[in-house]
Specification:
- The protein is α/β, with parallel strands linked by helices.
- It has 2 domains: 218 residues, Alanine racemase (TIM Barrel), CATH 3.20.20.10; 108 residues, Elongation Factor Tu (Ef-tu), domain 3, CATH 2.40.30.
- The chain contains 10 helices and 16 strands.
- The strands form 2 sheets. Strands 1, 10, 11, 12, 13, 14, 15 and 16 form an 8-stranded mixed β-sheet that branches. It has an 8-stranded parallel β-sheet with strand order 8-7-6-5-4-3-2-9.
- The longest helix has 18 residues.
- It is elongated, with a radius of gyration of 23 Å.
Length: 352
């Protein structure tokens, strides 16, 4: 088989998706499957749908187009607020989008009317993480203006937490989201289809909540694919954490000093490396590097030590593994490593 490659266990992904759908569904919350970390893979998208999910979300219009073009039938949600320049593309590829700027929504309205479409909007609310979102005090004025825009349906509100500022979903901010939703519904005579309460970081809040209020939707990626919550990266009981395996092939295996010799300058990425002297060691080079994956997010499944990486190479201390040219080394991936590896055209994807 080709290397480098990612081996993707669809059965484990399906198990995780079904388990999370049941877990959140028990409290009246629907799961939206996020496909951005798998680069909008149509195979994985269909697996999520076959597991009972009905809405798929991605940050990139190209990924939404990829799934649509492959015949994936779902409601599609654009996660990242559309740029003004991609408003028409957003209307054409997404049924729903998250928004926090009225100028963008006006542009979406124009193109929705031009294409005889109705585009759903979820207004994002700032609750402390300080990424996207309207300040709560500004919401009423925006909702008032949205009511006059053709081709646009205000389908709900949402928030994003634990992405930029690391702010945890808790009873206070989730309760605040519910209160805002209720206030807007009463004030404007609305019934929101979505009150979107964040992402995979919401698990701890869900497990401790006796009342989830108006929150009825979450956007899950890492929890489905890696079986982990995202506040502390702890495994979620009953889920698989090894649905993805990165494989690298050995292209050199030699005994060499452990400490580089000569005058030290910057490496290929502008940093000054530091190594410790461990004496002569068996060093193996793998044919994969920083152009393909976030190497710091890899965990070897055998007893080797990652010593460093350049754009095309990972160097490991092979220890007692007896690695030879042509051998393969398997790694677990963090979310940060999975994202570029699934995006890289140089990493083959093998589904099973």
């Amino acid at each position: 088989m080709p290397t480098p490659r990612i081996e993707i266990d669809l059965t484990k992904i399906s198990h995780n998706a079904r388990a999370l759908k049941d877990l959140f569904g028990a409290k009246g919350i629907d799961v939206v499957g996020v496909t951005k970390v798998v680069c909008g893979s149509p195979v994985i998208a269909q697996t999520l749908l076959d597991s009972g999910l009905t809405i798929l979300a991605d940050s990139r219009t190209a990924n939404l187009d990829r799934m649509r073009d492959a015949g994936v039938e779902a409601q599609f949600l654009l996660l990242r607020t559309p740029t003004l320049s991609q408003a028409e593309a957003a209307v054409l590829c997404a049924d729903i989008s998250l928004n926090s700027e009225i100028s963008v929504v006006r542009r979406l309205s124009r193109f929705a009317v031009a294409h005889h479409l109705r585009h759903k909007i979820i207004l994002m609310v700032e609750l402390g993480d300080l990424r996207e979102g309207l300040m709560p005090a500004d919401l009423a004025g925006i909702v008032e203006e949205l009511r006059d825009l053709e081709g646009i349906e205000l389908a709900g509100i949402g928030t994003n937490l634990a992405c930029l500022g690391g702010i945890s979903p808790d009873h206070e901010n989730m309760g605040g989201l519910s209160a805002i939703a209720g206030d807007l519904e009463r004030r404007f005579g609305l019934t929101f289809e979505f009150v979107s309460g964040g992402n995979s970081a919401s698990l701890a809040w869900l497990m401790s909540a006796t009342n989830v209020g108006r929150v009825n939707s979450v956007r899950l990626g890492e929890a489905i694919y890696l079986g982990r919550e995202t506040l502390h990266r702890e495994p979620i009981p009953g889920l698989f954490t090894d649905a993805f395996t990165l494989i690298g092939e050995v292209i050199e295996s030699k005994t060499k000093p452990s400490l580089p010799y000569g005058q030290v300058g910057q490496d290929a990425f502008g940093t000054t490396p530091a190594f410790r002297d461990q004496g002569p060691m068996r060093r193996a080079i793998l044919a994969i590097g920083l152009q393909d994956v976030l190497v710091s997010g890899l965990t070897p499944r055998i007893d080797v030590e990652v010593l460093g990486a350049s754009s095309d190479h990972i160097v490991v201390n092979a220890r007692e593994q007896g690695l030879e040219v042509g051998d393969e080394v398997a790694f677990d991936l963090s979310y940060g490593a999975l994202l570029p590896a699934m995006t890289s055209p140089y990493v083959a994807k093998e589904y099973r």
